[in-house]
Amino acid sequence: MSNPIVELTAREHEVLQLLSHGLNSGEIAQKLFISVNTVEYHRKQLLRKLSANNAAHLVGNAFRMRLLKG
């Protein structure tokens, strides 16, 4: 996988971090005090930006792209 520059918003990065800890959309919404619909919007944007098909693929790509630290 090439390592293109991916720019995430602060909120996208927060959602990504929480996804990487295994939280679901409802749990993320509660933790960030936003609606589940807003979390879903950010998830869709992350999937698109990181060329992923699902949450597991998203987190894996994020680690490979060094957007998350192990």
Describe the fold and architecture:
It is a single chain. The chain is mainly alpha-helical. Helices cover 61% and strands 0% of the residues. The protein has helices spanning 10-20, 25-32, 36-49, 55-64. The chain is built from four helices and no strands. It has one domain: Orthogonal Bundle (Arc Repressor Mutant, subunit A), CATH 1.10.10.10. The longest helix has 14 residues, at 36-49. The protein starts with 9 loop residues before the first helix and ends in a 6-residue tail after the last helix. The model has no long low-confidence stretch (mean pLDDT 94).
Topology:
Elements: H1 10-20, H2 25-32, H3 36-49, H4 55-64
Helix pairs in contact: 1-3, 2-3
- Supply the number of structural domains: 1
Mean pLDDT: 94
Category by helix and strand content: mainly alpha
In percent terms, what proportion of residues is strand?
under 5%
Features:
70 residues, mainly alpha, Arc Repressor Mutant, subunit A
